[in-house]
Design brief:
α2 crosses α10 and α3 runs parallel beside α4. The protein starts with a helix and ends with a helix. The longest helix has 25 residues. Helix content is 46%, strand content 18%. The strands form 3 sheets. Strands 2-1-3-4-5-12-11 form a 7-stranded mixed sheet, sandwiched between helices. The chain has a 4-stranded parallel sheet with strand order 7-6-8-9. Strands 10-13 form a two-stranded antiparallel sheet. It has 12 helices and 13 strands. β3, α4 and β4 form a beta-alpha-beta unit. By secondary structure, the protein is of the alpha/beta class. Bound molecules: beta-D-galactopyranose. The site of beta-D-galactopyranose (GAL) has 11 residues, from loops.
Amino acid sequence: MKTRLIFVVISLVLSVLIGLSLARQGAGDARPERSGKVRIGLSLDTLKEARWQADRDMFVRRASELGAKVQVLSANGDDTVQIGDVEKLITSGVNVLVIVPHDGTAMAKAVRLAHDAGIPVIAYDRIIRDSDLDLYVSFDNVRVGELQARFVADHLPQQKPARIVRIYGAKTDNNASQFKAGQDSVIDPLVKSGAVSVVHEDWAEDWKPENAKRIVNAAITAKGPRIDAVLASNDGTAGGAVQALSEEGLAGKVLVTGQDADLVALQRIATGTQAMSIYKPLHTLAQGAAELAVKMATGKPVVARHTVNNGAIDVPAVLFDVVTVTSANIDATVVKDGLYRHEDIFR
Ligand code: GAL
């Protein structure tokens, strides 16, 4: 009697496990053939900013170390091209898709296409909205904004209210809203208390430096040259802001924030035309995402300690921490991590 019971239980468990794997195969299981290499599709928005080239290289290097093959396609900021790239990667038989969306909403379609083919999707750095995304891997973007605004708050001039210009990122990028939310949590109370006045604010389409330059030009035309700080959301837009300020002889006299610790931004920090940036240790994100992609492709469990709501679901998320970088800690952060040499920054 007892042996028969054990036999029934074992066959039941086995059938559930097989059932689960078959269910996945029913929807076109993209797991690598037992003998095959893991194949990862990496779909990028752009390679315009220095950081994305670094992300790509570090991701591909780590994935190759893990025995995986990565196909990389960059859409150059075009949503139609990016959907086409995803279709190409699906057709070419990738086991998992890793996507940096240009437009977080437009790429919901990519998640549907991938799931129809049984392929899991990881959103890299920027979330994909309104879809049952499998995993989101990024930095703590709200904290990025908090640290940027905190820096401005800690360096306000005596004269009140301090007059600041705010440059947000691309509206298509969910990160830009998260950076803004973090900044708002510090700036809004200061505006209420009268310590700060936001004299001009706008979104820099596609994160383009020239759009950021136009925003600061417009601010100076509309409100005059007395600006105490430009709260710029990344180094690219900070560069555009510094260009506009230098046209007015204000570069180095107005506090400018940034993000990404780009080399040119670090050089601006070294010479004093930019006050700070946010260092996001890209190797943690790129290597972490490559490891998670290989795990997902081979059906291994993934540990995600956070969730981020994308408008449809609470997406399991892995979020890495960030650091404020100024001329005081450049050596202890980006130089120590081997990103750049001291002499490349402090020329
Ligand atoms: C954001 C990213 C930033 C920034 C920007 C422009 O999504 O988190 O690091 O550089 O895109 O590419």
